[in-house]
Specification:
By secondary structure, the chain is mainly α. It contains 13 helices and no strands.
């Protein structure tokens, strides 16, 4: 790994990370600020939720069998933030940033200059991956800080264990897609094509996860989606099964290794 290259990659990412982190933090605080209203009207909201169709719950990452939890702080935060809005927004950052690692250098015609740095190719790519991982951690920790502050200010029931497990679940989820984005970037010559492939893959996985929850006949589809092992509600309750973040982490690492192999073997000089 080349630390000068890490610092350069971090400088390139700093404003993108800043605006994504700030936007998510403000959104989290805003949504959490409405929790006291929900808490005061739990019975009315519980009756309202009973009227919603199952498909609508599934579409927004909510298990219909756990509707009763929606009036709790963990359930509320899951349904309004970490079940749909947060992962979609964070994935946009990861996909766009991850697919830029190699493909953008080729697209801009700066690949020859980048590869002229007197360090092995593996160090060049690892340096950018470390910077991307740093961006992911900033995004997650900023969101965690906003959630913790909101919970303290507005009476949310959130334990330190739940906060830590949520950070682990969110980080490993993003690492899995960061690995896939890096692999697509190492194989493609245009950032837009790489981003389209990974974005389409993410959308397909989400749809497969939704369909898997609708009928028993389609349950097998859940094995083809990373969203199956993304469980922020269980994390906030301190009940996250350890194998879920581990599986996501393994997918990300495997994809990153494949990206290094592809990057080392291909001729990408402009």
């Amino acid at each position: 790994m080349s630390w000068p290259m890490v610092r350069k990659a971090l400088r390139d990412l700093r404003w993108t990370v800043f605006w994504y982190a700030l936007g998510l933090a403000l959104y989290i605080v805003l949504i959490v600020s409405f929790y006291p209203t929900l808490e005061r009207q739990q019975e009315q909201y519980a009756r309202l939720y009973q009227e919603f169709p199952e498909f609508l719950f599934r579409l927004f990452g909510i298990d219909p069998t756990q509707v009763s939890l929606l009036t709790t702080f963990a359930g509320y935060v899951h349904s309004q933030i970490f079940g749909f809005i947060w992962p979609v927004t964070a994935l946009i950052f990861v996909v766009l940033s991850g697919t830029a690692l190699v493909a953008q250098e080729i697209e801009r015609g700066t690949a020859d200059l980048w590869l002229s740095v007197p360090v092995p190719r593996v160090h060049l790519l690892v340096s950018k991956e470390v910077a991307l991982l740093g961006g992911i951690l900033v995004l997650v920790l900023t969101s965690e800080g906003a959630l913790a502050a909101g919970a303290a200010a507005f009476g949310g029931d959130l334990t330190a264990r739940g906060l830590v497990q949520l950070a682990v679940a969110s980080t490993c989820f993003l690492i899995a897609f960061a690995g896939l984005a890096t692999l697509a970037s190492a194989l493609a010559s245009e950032r837009s094509k790489a981003a389209g492939v990974v974005g389409g893959m993410g959308l397909l996985m989400y749809l497969l996860w939704v369909l898997a929850g609708l009928t028993e006949e389609a349950r097998w589809l859940r094995f083809f989606s990373l969203f199956t092992v993304y469980d922020p509600q269980a994390a906030m309750l301190g009940e996250l099964p350890w194998y879920k973040p581990v599986l996501q982490l393994l997918v990300g690492l495997a994809a990153a290794v494949a990206a290094h192999i592809a990057f080392a073997r291909r001729d990408i000089l402009a």
